[in-house]
Structure formats: C-alpha cells, structure tokens
Amino acid sequence: MSKAGIPVPNQKGIHQEVQDFFLNWIQSLLTTNYYDPSHPEGRRALNKIFHGFQRAIREGSNKYISFTLLTGGDRPDVIIDGLEGGPYSLREVLPTGMGDLYLPKFSAYMDRRKLASISLLPWLTWEELGRFFEVMNGKLTGSVEEQNEYIKNEFEKRDVRNVRLIFKEDFVGAMRKLSYRVNLALTKLVQDFRLIMAVQDQNPLEIEKVKPNLYSEALKGLINQTQLYEALINIDLVDKAIGPNKHIHPSQEVIEYLDDRRVIPLLEFMMQRLDVFENPPAGTDLEILDFEKHMVWQLLPRLARRFIRDMASKQIDLVEILLVKQIIHIGDLPENMRETFVKRMLVVYLEQDPEGFFQFLEGARLTSFLREADYFLKLLTTTDRHLLAFYVIQFLVWTADNGDTDEDRQLARAGLISLNDEGVIENLLRWFEGAKKEEREPAVELLMMAGNAGLRLLIEFLKRSNDRWLRKFLIDCLATQGQVVVDYLVRQMENEKLEWFQLRNFLDILGQVADMSQGPRIEKFLHHEDPRVRMEAAHAYHLIMGGLALPELARLLRDPDDNVRYQAIKEFEAAPESDDAFDLFIERVLRDKENRETNRVLIGAIRCLVTKRHIMKVDVEDVLIAALERKVNSLAGISLGGGQAHDVKVRASAAEALGQLRSQRALPALLNLQKEKNEELTKSAQVAIRNIQNASTAGR
Length: 700
Known about the structure:
Layout (H helix, E strand, L loop, with lengths): L15 H15 L11 H18 L5 E6 L6 E5 L6 E2 H4 L5 H14 L2 E6 L5 H11 L7 H14 L5 E5 L12 H20 L4 H16 L5 H9 L2 H7 L7 H4 L6 H19 L7 H26 L4 H9 L10 H18 L4 H7 L2 H6 L1 H10 L3 H17 L3 H11 L5 H13 L2 H13 L1 H14 L3 H12 L3 H13 L4 H14 L5 H5 L7 H15 L4 H7 L5 H13 L5 H12 L7 H13 L8 H9 L14 H19 L5 H7 L5 H21 L1
Antiparallel strand pairs: 1-2, 1-4, 2-3, 4-5
C-alpha cells in the first residue's frame, strides 16, 4: 500500500490485494489453527483470504486459480494459473521480497503432502472455504497416503467440491510411466470432467460451453511439442477414468479444442513420427511403438482435417505433404481448393508413385484433371518430368477409349491434341536425345502402350532427331509393333513430303516388319531420286519380297550410283538364290578389262563369286582368273575406272578369292602375279599360292 492507502501493482501488474491473497493463502496452509473459524482472529483472516480470492478471479480468467508443483529442474517451483497474462511462478505473484522466503516452504509443503496441484474454482463460497481449512488444518494421523485418503473422504462428507486437490497417487498414467507434466495435465482433465459432470448435472449445453476452457487449461501447462504429443497419444486414459458419458469423449474431442497456435507444429511433429514408425531405431520396444502408431493414426487425420478447415489456405505446402502421405484426400479439401490441388498433386503424386497414378485419379476428380490435361503435358515437359508426361499420355489414350462418360472420353481426346504442340514435341525429343538407355526404354514402352498417339510421337522423334544412336534405337523399337506401325508409316510416306533420311529410316522399319503386302509400295522407292533412299529401299524390298525381289535388284545393277549398285550386289550375296542377270553382270564387270566399274562394286562382285559359287551358272574360277590378270592400259597408266591403284585392289582381291577356293588352275597366273613389282599384289599372290599348295598336300 502507498502512504495514501492506494493499492499499487508489483512489476507484473498484479494488484496488491491479489498479492496479499496469495501470501495469506500460503500462510493459511503452512500455519495450523490460526485460520480455523473458531479462532478469535480466524473469521477476519478467512474473510481476507476469500475477498482476495474473489478479486483474483475477477481480474483473471474467471475460471479458477491453481497452484501446481513442478519438480525435476534445478529447484522446485510452484506455478500459478488463472491470472491475466499468466502462468506465473509463485515468486512473481507474492509481494516484493516474500517469494524467496515462501516459495521453498510452500513447494516443500506440497511435496511432503504429495500434492501435485491445488485449484480454487470460481463457485467457491466463504463457508466452503472454511470447511476446507477445517479439514486441512485438522489433526491428521497415519502415513501421508492415509492422510490424503482421509482428506478426500472428508471433502466428500463436508461437500467441499470447489477446491480440487490432485495428489500424485491419483495420477492416471502411473502404469504408462508418463512424464510428470503430462500425467498432471491428464489427471487435471479427468478431475475437471468429473467435477463439471457433477456440477452441471449432465446438462449438455452447459457441458459444451465449458469444454473449450477445460481442454485449454489442462493442456496449456505442456510447454513443448513432445509433451503435448505424449498427452494426446495417451488421451485414452481420460476416457477410461471418467467412464462412459454421452456428452464427453476426450479421445475424439481433444483435437477440436486444441489452441490454433499448436495445430501446425503438432501436425508436423506427428508426421515426423511416421518416419520413425517406418524405420524404428535399434532397441525400440515394438509393442509400445505399435500402441503409439495406433493412437497417432487415430488422431492424425482429425488433426489434419482441423488444419484444413481452419488454416490450410495459408499453408499450401503443408497441404501438399498431407496429400502425398495420404493423411488426407482431395475430397477432404474445401471445394474452392480442390481444383488447385488436383493440378499440384498429380505432379507430386506421379513423382512419388507413378504406378498409383490411376488410383489417385479415381480418388481425385477425374473430369477436373481431364479438363487440364494439356496444361499437365506442357507443365511436365517444360519442367523435365518427361517420364511422368508419358504416363499422362498413356492414361489419356486409355480414357479416350474406355472412359466412364462421354464427357471424359471427349476431354481425353482433346487432351491428346496437345501432342501436336511443337513445344511438347521438342521438349520430349530433347530429353530423349540426352537420356540414358535405362531411361529411354521405359519411356518408349509407355508410349508404345499408348497406342496410335504414342506411336505417332515416337515416329515424330525419329523424323526429327539428330542423334544417330537414338534413331537406331527408335527404329528397332518401332519395328516390334508390326502392322500398326506399318500402316502409319506407309500413310506418311504417301501423303507427306519427307526428307531422304526420314524415308530411309521408315524403309528400315518396313524391311524389319517384312509385310509382303507392302512390297508394291516399297518398289517405287527403288527409283527414288536420292541414291541413299534407293539403297535402303533395295534392302527393305529384299527383306519383304525375298526371292521375288531379285529381278528388281538386278535392274539396280545398272543404277548410275555405285553405292546403289554395291547395295544390289550385297543383297544378291545374302540371297539363297541367284539370277541370270546378276550372273551376267558379275562375269561382265570382272572379265572386261575396259570396264570402268568402281573398286567397291568389283570387289563386292568377287566376294559374291566366292559366296555363291555353288549356285552361279558362270565358271567362277575362270572369271576370277580373268580378274586376276586384269590390267588397265591408258595414257599415263591411269584408267577412267580409277587408275592403277584401283586395279591393284581388284586384282589382290581376286588372288585372295582364288586362294580361298584352293584353285589349282590359278597357280600359273598367281605365280606370274607375285613377280610384279607391287608389294600388295605380291603378298596376296603368295598367300593364295600357299593356301593352294597346303590344300594339295593335305589331299595327298
């Protein structure tokens, strides 16, 4: 008090009358008899405490004033709840200088009595307060446990219901070895519910009105996420302690009444525990962990739905995580958020579990996704999620044919039109050209499973790619698709103006498929203006038509391009049959010294003579000997057919061929050849002579 008698607050802004109440209250419990109503000063002292309590209730939360003993730190403390701005340490609410004196005494008193908490409820009357002191300051005998049991019995007899004592032996979690603060919070909640059920006479409206305060006051003493989490996964103890009640269900309700500020941190903490459940540390008690996991999966969906309802719009990333982990589903979101998250989640979900793509769509909103299909394809291809794009393509193709509604089927077909988008094609092709084989293979597999749309995309890659190895890979893959790809390629070859290399690649595929019905269409490319196309057409035509192709191949022996002529010879060499025109061509080009054929063709002809010697009608040895003796005479010793160097290569090849045939008839010509002043000819002749002589010796 000031000299003028005006109450002054201390440093916490607590009124002096309230400070005096706390001091008098403590003294009343530490000192026996003086506060007994029968004591000469007892009535006055009781009045002072009661009026101080009422002042504290008016200036505080109007719920209760509680004293809670905390142990386990550097030194015990008593926490005061119920005042504005609290909770406070007892030291902070006592008049200046009194805290250091009375806090140790009062904490020792509570510890000695095994008291965890004392609460004064707002309905406390003067008479009831007097009866409380009569019991507490009466003569108590026996052990502490016996004294506490006596106090509880006397409270019931004397109708002391608005002073609540929580003894440590009353803790509800004794069997689960809960931490002190958690045990106290759950026990406090049990006693609150028991009291409110009695006071409110089971009036459901009154019970609903006080529930938020009861949960809040019980849990606010839990100072971190670990303690709050421990309390919630053991909330079933409260249900068991209060027994069946149609108006109170703590396990189902506690999340609903949780302070908003605690929802997100607790949600994140619980999701971290999910990782522990998946990979428990060594030495973990699996039975306890299973119980924890069971409780978390009861609470977590409720906590997530509370978060979605009240605060999701400001925490988009957390919503996404909840969806990915399947804690909530698209249907749990407010209507105005679903469209956004269908888009976001399809990308995220595909990355996490592409094979679950269809199931996710069923759980989301399929029609909403289909409306955005072109957006997805462009998004996926511009953000390097290419394999996911192929899944989307596959799904669109399937839905276009098999969707449940006409709208879905039409939307899927519309989405596939985006495959014609230049940006989509170029992005996918760029990825294909840089991807490794193990990445390309599943991508091609997906596209081939996507039917015509996928094949069209692969063919588009083949048409545009500058990567030789990718083109070869695509050709081999497309060739496995048989008639489907043949029909598409033939249509393109007939209706579009294609570059020579595109035609060549298409012909390669058609040759591998070998559909004889396409022979007439391929035949016309044997006369294409570009010799590179004619070469590929020769090979494809032979693969498709077999022996029936030989007459057309024979005509190519007169082609103006030596590469085409050489390709025709290679095709004849691979054929099990021969042809009169081919035989005549071989004989003519090798016998005629004035023939101007290139060395590739001549050497190819020599190789064919050896390979097909058993079925050709010409005298193979005679033709080779003629080629062996072939010399080109012209001014300066150089012929129009390529010169002496060219002639040497052909004669050396003929010598090697005669050596392979072990031709005795060729020995004179070979002996003459080895005398010529040319190292390559001499060496070839010597090898051939040795082969023939060795064969002759072996024969004898």
